[in-house]
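User: Hi! I have a protein structure encoded as tokens and I'd like to know what sequence might fold into it. I'm fairly new to this, so please keep things simple.
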């Protein structure tokens, strides 16, 4: 390879190109336990495909990500088996992700600065949903390219369908998962 070719190749490389790899944070919810107890504690299990994080299989997952990276939070119930009548079990849904102030003494304070830009869902999964079609929900966002590197705890606001009830149950995570943002 000539010097000119190497120089041209090196100048084309974008230091943020690894951000094109999307991360997936999968959350499984024991719907029966969560709705009976009214809490997600010991009823929620999170895993991701990041490299170097910790807390796999717990509610305190640490996901390692980069500035500008897309993260998909996918949520589904532990029990995903179709029932004898052809319907599906109640489904959980992430209504919001609230980033907490990692500088404040109270870990429940909401961060003043924005960390994520939500990517809206295209189409209408709620309108297409019927009892005979399995649907899982997700929340997608991009870590701001200007985010200060560091550890950011967050709280999931989860909506749970309840068996044989029309009203939904809204719960916040008590254990706080986190994002470890790395500089590009």
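Assistant: Happy to help. Inverse folding works backwards from shape to sequence: for each of the 184 positions I chose a residue that suits the local structure. Here it is:
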């Amino acid at each position: 390879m000539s010097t000119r070719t190497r120089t041209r190749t090196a100048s084309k490389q974008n230091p943020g190109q690894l951000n094109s790899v999307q991360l997936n944070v999968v959350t499984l919810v024991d719907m029966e336990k969560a709705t009976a107890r009214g809490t997600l504690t010991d009823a929620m299990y999170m895993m991701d495909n990041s490299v170097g994080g910790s807390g796999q299989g717990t509610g305190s997952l640490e996901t390692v990500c980069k500035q500008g990276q897309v993260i998909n939070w996918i949520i589904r119930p532990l029990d995903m088996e179709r029932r004898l009548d052809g319907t599906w079990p109640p489904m959980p849904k992430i209504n919001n992700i609230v980033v907490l102030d990692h500088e404040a003494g109270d870990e429940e304070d909401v961060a003043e600065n924005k960390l994520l830009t939500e990517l809206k869902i295209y189409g209408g999964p709620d309108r297409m949903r019927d009892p005979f079609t399995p649907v899982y929900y997700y929340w997608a966002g991009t870590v701001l390219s200007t985010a200060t590197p560091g550890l950011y705890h967050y709280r999931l606001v989860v909506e749970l369908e309840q068996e044989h009830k029309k009203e939904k149950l809204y719960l916040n995570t008590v254990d706080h998962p986190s994002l470890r943002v790395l500089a590009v």
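A useful reference point when you look it over: Strands lie at 23-29, 44-48, 62-66, 70-77, 92-99, 116-119, 137-143, 150-160, 169-172, 178-182. Feel free to ask if any position seems puzzling.
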